[in-house]
């Protein structure tokens, strides 16, 4: 069976990482437009770096939970494509062999001048030089609002071939990821949502499994493995 799974910030919430709440426009007490857009970085790069330095520290202290570990196990039994919206590395640390980071990674740095990428230090600063071109416009390797997500061709191809599509811990209000379920359904995949509560696009799924990811995801994975 070919399975494509999309995970959002909700899967890491039980590991202690905050989720983005669109209802109040705040993300860890900051306005999204002040820390997660190209315009914010151009206007106040020091603030943006402070915000992501703090997030990097929180991610480093977090640990994969039972949902991350269950998906890593699923990859050992089925043809799994794992796509993640959140920028932490918990899927990787849980042992998932190939994780598509469509919104980048908190552990990466990117040169805004030449596009070179390298592992981010624990603390990034405005004047950090690029290891390749020495330009001092280093930024987190994260896809901000208004930018194009990474690896889209690979993701669409996986959705085209999927027999089963599952969205876990996603809000259903951030595109293009919110449109993945419709694309997979048009190609004939069964579509399942796992969330604490129904998402904004819940009607597009064949069924919902509601509850904490650390409970629902391991149970779902066990059932898939047992069914062969």
UniProtKB/TrEMBL annotation:
<feature type="binding site">
    <location>
        <begin position="169"/>
        <end position="171"/>
    </location>
    <ligand>
        <name>NAD(+)</name>
    </ligand>
</feature>
<comment type="function">
    <text>NAD-dependent lysine deacetylase and desuccinylase that specifically removes acetyl and succinyl groups on target proteins. Modulates the activities of several proteins which are inactive in their acylated form.</text>
</comment>
<feature type="binding site">
    <location>
        <position position="52"/>
    </location>
    <ligand>
        <name>substrate</name>
    </ligand>
</feature>
<dbReference type="InterPro" id="IPR003000">
    <property type="entry name" value="Sirtuin"/>
</dbReference>
<feature type="active site" description="Proton acceptor">
    <location>
        <position position="103"/>
    </location>
</feature>
<comment type="similarity">
    <text>Belongs to the sirtuin family. Class III subfamily.</text>
</comment>
<dbReference type="InterPro" id="IPR050134">
    <property type="entry name" value="NAD-dep_sirtuin_deacylases"/>
</dbReference>
<keyword id="KW-0862">Zinc</keyword>
<feature type="binding site">
    <location>
        <position position="55"/>
    </location>
    <ligand>
        <name>substrate</name>
    </ligand>
</feature>
<feature type="binding site">
    <location>
        <position position="213"/>
    </location>
    <ligand>
        <name>NAD(+)</name>
    </ligand>
</feature>
<protein>
    <recommendedName>
        <fullName>NAD-dependent protein deacylase</fullName>
        <ecNumber>2.3.1.286</ecNumber>
    </recommendedName>
</protein>
<feature type="binding site">
    <location>
        <begin position="85"/>
        <end position="88"/>
    </location>
    <ligand>
        <name>NAD(+)</name>
    </ligand>
</feature>
<feature type="binding site">
    <location>
        <begin position="8"/>
        <end position="27"/>
    </location>
    <ligand>
        <name>NAD(+)</name>
    </ligand>
</feature>
<dbReference type="Pfam" id="PF02146">
    <property type="entry name" value="SIR2"/>
</dbReference>
<dbReference type="InterPro" id="IPR026590">
    <property type="entry name" value="Ssirtuin_cat_dom"/>
</dbReference>
<feature type="binding site">
    <location>
        <position position="114"/>
    </location>
    <ligand>
        <name>Zn(2+)</name>
    </ligand>
</feature>
<keyword id="KW-0479">Metal-binding</keyword>
<dbReference type="InterPro" id="IPR027546">
    <property type="entry name" value="Sirtuin_class_III"/>
</dbReference>
<feature type="binding site">
    <location>
        <position position="111"/>
    </location>
    <ligand>
        <name>Zn(2+)</name>
    </ligand>
</feature>
<keyword id="KW-0963">Cytoplasm</keyword>
<keyword id="KW-0520">NAD</keyword>
<feature type="binding site">
    <location>
        <begin position="195"/>
        <end position="197"/>
    </location>
    <ligand>
        <name>NAD(+)</name>
    </ligand>
</feature>
<feature type="binding site">
    <location>
        <position position="133"/>
    </location>
    <ligand>
        <name>Zn(2+)</name>
    </ligand>
</feature>
<feature type="domain" description="Deacetylase sirtuin-type">
    <location>
        <begin position="1"/>
        <end position="228"/>
    </location>
</feature>
<feature type="binding site">
    <location>
        <position position="130"/>
    </location>
    <ligand>
        <name>Zn(2+)</name>
    </ligand>
</feature>
